[in-house]
Structures are given as C-alpha cells and as structure tokens.
Amino acid sequence: AGLFGILGVMLGGSIMNINGGAVLNPVQVLFNSFLIGIFPAIAISTDSTEPGIMDASPRDPSIPIFNAKTAPIWIMFGLFQSAASLLPWIWQDELGVPVAQSMTFAILSLTTVLMAISLRRSLVPGWAGPYIPYWLWMAVPAALTWLCVELPVLQKILLTTSLTGSQWMAVLLACMITPTVIEITKAIQRSRAQSAVSR
C-alpha cells in the first residue's frame, strides 16, 4: 500500500505539473522507499501472531496475496496517502517550494509509519497491543523523519528545511487521514465478519 502512495505522489506531481514534477527530490524518494520502509518490514516480519488467527478459516494458498479483493483496497490506501502528501502544495505560494517539499516528505514518511501500525493486523485495530517491540520499531523511522527535516547535517543530504510548530501540526493532521480510512475500512470488515459468523 505504501508503494502505491509513493507512486501516486510522483505521478500526481507530474500530471499536475507541481514544481515541474519534482514534488520530492530523488534522494528523498529513495530515503522514503528504502530506509523508512525497511523498519515496518522488519517489525511486521518479527511481530507476534494476530489474536484469534487460529479461529479463522485457512487462506487458500492458490490465491495470491495481491488479488482482486485486496488490490483495490491497497490502491485506495495508497491514493489517500499520496493525496495527503500533496496537500502542502496547495499553499505553495505561501509556504515556498523548500517548505512544501519538506512537508510532503514528512507526511509521506510518517504516514508510512502510521499505515504500518494500522495494517499490522488484518481486522484487529492498529492501536491494540502488544506494543513492544512493534511500536519501538515504528518509533525509529518516526524519529528519523524528524531528524531529516530538522538536523542540519541531514538537511544538506536530503535538501530539506526546518518546519515551524504550526507546519508540523499540519503535517501530523495530514498523516492521520490514511490510517483513519484504514481503520474505518477494517471496522466495516469486522462488522461483516461478525455478521457472517452470526448467520
């Protein structure tokens, strides 16, 4: 789902000709794709078993994970992530290109972290425990994102610029859009699953 978000940001920026298509610079894209994305991958691969998994019906091994049922949902999540990440460019004239680009980088990175929390379990809410060590893994890319935007050494590498308190607040609000959509989708799926069981 996060990969669709990155693709959506790049395609959306090009189609709408935002900053000449350079919504993010190449280093920021690579940083988000590999360094930010590796921590959710590690956390998910080492996480505990989802509660109630043994009560669920076994998955058909002949059906790929990315299929006609999951693909539209994952693409939808990616589109919400990319749309949220592009929001700062609406105020490009007031913010300036460096700030808008830094906010987009921060939103994309932090949303990746929050999506990993929400998508940790297929039906159980993202805020359900156990919290350690999974949330500790998520804290690493979250802190790394802040350092990339605020630490002068990393600013030179990623070409980011410091954000004000209100700009960071806007970043955090934009980051909540996609996980909210995910949790609403999961709540609907839980309701349908419970209805199916009650029948």
Descriptive account of the structure:
Helices cover 67% and strands 0% of the residues. It has 199 residues and is mostly helical. Helix 5 (97-118) packs antiparallel against helix 6 and helix 5 runs parallel beside helix 9 (177-198). The longest helix has 22 residues, at 97-118.
Topology:
Layout: H1 2-15, H2 26-45, H3 70-86, H4 92-95, H5 97-118, H6 134-150, H7 152-158, H8 165-175, H9 177-198
Helix pairs in contact: 1-3, 2-5, 2-6, 3-5, 3-9, 5-6, 5-8, 5-9, 6-7
Q: What is the gist of this entry?
A:
The protein is mainly alpha-helical. The protein is 67% helix and 0% strand. It has helices at residues 2-15, 26-45, 70-86, 92-95, 97-118, 134-150, 152-158, 165-175, 177-198.
Task: Quickly list its features.
mainly alpha, 199 residues, 9 helices
Q: Which term fits the overall shape?
A: globular
H and E string = HHHHHHHHH
**Residue-averaged pLDDT:** 91
- Sheet having the most strands: none
Are there runs of 5+ residues with pLDDT below 50, and where?
Answer: none
Oligomerization category of the chains in this entry: single chain
- Indicate the proportion of strand residues: under 5%
The level of helicity is 55-70%
